[in-house]
């Protein structure tokens, strides 16, 4: 009987604990990081069914974990519909943390694998498409010769997206132009090239080789744009308006892929506004020339970006110095 009374007391105690956990607003239960990763997977895949397969979990388990997370977060994380799930603002904020945790876990696995192979350091470098095409082929060997136990993880993307990824912890460094007067809080930048925009075309283009061009020469010509949704688009249009171009006929828009843009530009049917420093290094390879357009210069400085605390690491500080020294020498 004593044993039964004890068991009953233990069950009643467990019931009280569960009631406290479920009902008391003053007791906070830490969120399980795995649940945040699972939430990110659900929103990425668009359904609990697809996420459960990706995560190798049963649907009831995943549903229960999301109910627990919603209880702890104090609100709905996503809405279900016939087309899948759609995140709420709260769900998107927590999913962002889940994606960061997933990246850290992936990074940890990669660190372990690299360490077994004799690699002691990794630099995650994001780089804009045009500047990446212009410098990375030579810059990577420079870094690897100086740091034999270094591994490079390179990502090419549009500059404003790279900066967002840097803020989220997705990169150690970013090489990209700036559209901001000042860097975001916690981010520092160093000038690599005090660059400007120019108008470029292929050597075979009808306008190539002319000594002087006016607005009437380029008005209503076919253009290629490197992403009309970027913060730099206004600079491009401003440059053309400054020289009197009224009709800008953009036939092709390329998002984040410099090689594709330059290859199409080399065919000789289009014009493009591009930064001068990278194009000086790429012009011979793709058979391109800059057109002699009048008008005031349009600055497009290129920077090395990183989080402020990163430079406290001795190796990262040396990597930063070498990148700055090397690219500045090329830009002179």
UniProtKB/TrEMBL annotation:
Gene Ontology terms: cellular component: protein-DNA complex
Keyword match Membrane: no
Top-rank lineage group of the source organism: Bacteria
Keyword set, alphabetical order: DNA-binding, Transcription, Transcription regulation
Record-linked InterPro entries: LysR_HTH_N, LysR_subst-bd, WH-like_DNA-bd_sf, WH_DNA-bd_sf
Gene3D superfamilies hit by this protein: Periplasmic binding protein-like II, Winged helix-like DNA-binding domain superfamily/Winged helix DNA-binding domain
Domain HTH lysR-type positions: 31-88
A GO term, aspect molecular function: DNA binding
Family membership noted in the UniProt record: Belongs to the LysR transcriptional regulatory family.
The protein, known as: LysR family transcriptional regulator
Originating organism: Hydrogenophaga borbori
Organism classification: Bacteria, Pseudomonadati, Pseudomonadota, Betaproteobacteria, Burkholderiales
